[in-house]
Structure formats: C-alpha cells, structure tokens
Specification:
Helix content: under 10%
Shape: globular
Largest sheet: 7 strands, mixed
Low-confidence stretches: none
Oligomer: single chain
Strand content: over 45%
C-alpha cells in the first residue's frame, strides 16, 4: 500500500533552515501531485507547497521565496527546503500525495513531523 514517511523536523532558531524529507513507497507515483501541508495548534491544516509530475510548483504566499519543494525520482523522495524560518512557521508538517489515476487513485498522508521555530 502507499506509504509516506516524513523526517527532518526539529527545533530551530528564527532565521534558520530545515529540510524535510518524505519517503514514498507502494506506488510508481507516475500520476501524482505531491504536497506539503502544515497544521499549527488550534488551526486548520493548510497547503504549503505542491509539485506536479510535470514539475509545476505552487506555494502559499508566506512560503514563496523561502521554501522550495523538490523530488528525487530515483529515491522516491520529496523534499521541502525551508529557509529563513520564523516562529509563525511552527507547526506539524505533513506530506501528501494525490494519485490522480489508476487503482491507487486517492489521497494519502504521512504521519507528520514537528517543526518548532524559536524566537
């Protein structure tokens, strides 16, 4: 079955950087949109960045210019490079895969990784 496993979260000071990784397995992921979402305490889960199989990216306004989503097809891993972090970036970050065609069509989530940015 499709599995997404995040890693790379942690505690960082404001202005620092983190790189999140999402190891994907259980599919060829040939027809997929990968995304990173985050959820802060008491708030809804929001999209941070997305990446289509064609390489098209999209970012929430607060992430533009600071975050970069990328994919290593050979490793079936999706990354979120986060620079110039602020306390407002503190949240649990979730990897998401939307498989758009085939028997595995559907939405899949990882378990989340905590990112805490101290001021």
């Amino acid at each position: 079955q499709v599995q997404l496993v995040e890693s790379g979260g942690g505690l960082v000071q404001a202005g620092g950087s983190l790189r999140l990784s999402c190891a994907a397995s259980g599919s060829t992921f040939s027809s997929v949109v990968f995304g990173w979402y985050r959820q802060a305490p008491g708030k809804q889960r929001d999209m941070v960045a997305s990446l289509t199989r064609f390489g098209n990216t999209d970012y929430t306004d607060s992430a533009k210019g600071r975050f970069t989503i990328s994919r290593d097809n050979a490793k079936n891993t999706v990354y979120l490079q986060m620079n110039d972090l602020t306390p407002e970036d503190t949240a649990v970050y979730y990897c998401h895969a939307r498989i758009t065609w085939g028997l595995q069509k559907g939405d899949y989530w990882g378990q989340g990784t905590q990112v805490t940015v101290s001021s």
